[in-house]
């Protein structure tokens, strides 16, 4: 029997760990149940941190962890899924193609930044979506120091006032001063079509966020969208033109395109609809998890968000349940009633909220310490020691806050 997991992000990593954990508990060998993880690199990209400086350092190796728990790593990109023959078409790193058969499949392919067809967006914008994107932005920011201090050189426009946009914008003043000098006065502008900043955060945390933006000198243009970009800068839907060398697009996510190979219903974000065990509706043998799945967290109408916090726990349940079906043991319905948000606000600190109603618990320095703990410890892979790695993947405890 073979369980194939596509993706080495947070959901894919925990799917592999959890499936291996259940296999170990059941006393089944890796010859009897092979668990294979397909990804271009045996590396976890710590994507929630890509708004920070030195993004090339924000990865964690997975090869030794996978080896410790007897998970086969298949280096390559999954390019197609044939659910009838139960096979994944993999383009290998050597330039060949491989058909990888499966008895159960976990789709943990994550998400990608949504880039609409705005004139000049593809040619003149940056992002912190993927590791390569963040590295390109970092190199660009450093290159600005060699340009004359005019024509918007010191101005950064961030399109999107959600989590990623706010964390990117509030980090930017310190990043730019580190490049231009401590006396530099960079200008940062957030553009968002909503009438209020951080629309998903609600009225409770918003005053703290707005105060942080004021302290950092970050401007906002609310109720406005990006109409066009060119070499001189960005034109907003209001007609305002902002001269800048740097526009960072942070406005919306979609499930990775591979989900389109599964003949099943998807939501408006491209996520596959799944049941409480994270099985894809109507497609035998296929589970979806993380940003690739729309999953109910509870019986109150709350659904998992495209976030590291949800992906880790969803991954653990998907891996466990896919393995459980093959081993003939009961599955565990996914649930995630506890929910917390920790939003970085750069030199202004952070905020920590708990619950779907986003009740403020920590602000400022104390919240910043929690954010740093999350970013540098909690979301990293377990150490490459079999017992510790397997113990970390109990689905009932993964992602608890």
In short:
InterPro entries: FAD/NAD-bd_sf, FAD/NAD-binding_dom, NDH-2. The chain is an alpha/beta fold and 401 residues long.
* Strand order of the biggest β-sheet: 7-6-5-2-1-8-19
Poorly predicted ranges: none
User: Can you tell me the CATH topology of the largest domain?
Assistant: FAD/NAD(P)-binding domain
Number of helical stretches of at least 4 residues: 9
Structural class: alpha/beta
Q: What is the second-level CATH architecture of the largest domain?
A: 3-Layer(bba) Sandwich
Bin the helical content: 25-40%
For CATH, the homologous superfamily of the largest domain is named as FAD/NAD(P)-binding domain
Task: Output the radius of gyration.
Answer: 22 Å
The backbone outline, from C-alpha atoms, is globular
The biggest beta sheet is recorded as: 7 strands, mixed
- End-to-end distance: 35 Å
Count the E strands. Answer: 23
**Which CATH class of the largest domain applies here?**
Alpha Beta
Family: Belongs to the NADH dehydrogenase family.
Protein name: NAD(P)/FAD-dependent oxidoreductase
Domain FAD/NAD(P)-binding: 2-315
Keywords: FAD, Flavoprotein, NAD, Oxidoreductase
How would you describe this structure to a colleague?
- The chain has 401 residues and is an alpha/beta fold.
- The protein has two domains: 2-113 and 253-338, FAD/NAD(P)-binding domain (3-Layer(bba) Sandwich); 121-249, FAD/NAD(P)-binding domain (3-Layer(bba) Sandwich).
- 27% of the residues lie in helices and 26% in strands.
- It has nine helices and 23 strands.
- It has a seven-stranded mixed beta sheet.
- The radius of gyration is 22 Å and the shape is globular.
């Amino acid at each position: 029997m073979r369980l194939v997991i596509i993706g080495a992000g947070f959901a894919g990593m925990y799917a592999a760990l959890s499936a291996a954990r259940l296999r170990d508990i059941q006393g089944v060998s890796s010859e009897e149940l092979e668990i294979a993880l397909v990804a271009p690199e045996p590396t976890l990209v710590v994507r929630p941190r890509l708004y920070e400086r030195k993004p090339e350092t924000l990865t964690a190796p997975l090869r030794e962890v996978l080896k410790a728990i007897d998970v086969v790593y298949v280096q390559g990109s999954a390019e197609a899924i044939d659910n009838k023959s139960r096979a994944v078409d993999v383009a290998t790193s050597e330039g060949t193609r491989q058909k990888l058969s499966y008895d159960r499949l976990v789709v943990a392919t994550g998400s990608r930044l949504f880039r609409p067809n705005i004139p000049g967006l593809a040619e003149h914008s940056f992002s912190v979506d993927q590791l390569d994107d963040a590295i390109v932005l970092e190199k660009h920011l450093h290159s600005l120091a060699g340009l004359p201090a005019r024509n918007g050189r010191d101005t950064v426009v961030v399109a999107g006032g959600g989590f990623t946009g706010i964390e990117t914008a509030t980090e930017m003043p310190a990043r730019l001063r580190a490049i231009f000098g401590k006396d530099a006065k960079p200008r940062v502008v957030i553009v968002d079509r909503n009438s209020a900043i951080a629309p998903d955060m609600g009225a409770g945390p918003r005053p703290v966020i707005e105060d942080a933006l004021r302290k950092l000198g970050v401007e906002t243009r609310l109720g406005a969208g990006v109409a066009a970009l060119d070499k001189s800068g960005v034109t907003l839907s209001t007609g305002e033109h902002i001269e800048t060398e740097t526009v960072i697009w942070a406005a919306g996510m979609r499930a990775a395109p591979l989900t389109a190979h599964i003949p099943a219903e998807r939501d408006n974000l491209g996520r596959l609809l799944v049941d409480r065990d994270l099985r894809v509706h109507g497609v035998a043998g296929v589970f979806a998890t993380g940003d690739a799945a729309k999953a109910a967290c509870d019986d109150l109408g709350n659904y998992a968000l495209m976030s590291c916090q949800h992906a880790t726990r969803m991954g653990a349940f998907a891996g466990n349940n896919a393995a459980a079906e093959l081993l003939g043991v009961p599955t565990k319905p996914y649930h995630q009633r506890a929910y917390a948000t920790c939003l970085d606000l750069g030199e202004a600190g952070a905020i920590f909220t708990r619950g779907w109603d986003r009740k403020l618990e920590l602000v400022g320095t104390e919240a910043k310490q929690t954010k740093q703990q999350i970013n540098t410890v909690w979301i990293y892979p377990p150490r490459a020691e079999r017992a510790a790695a397997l113990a970390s993947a109990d689905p009932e405890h993964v992602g608890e806050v």
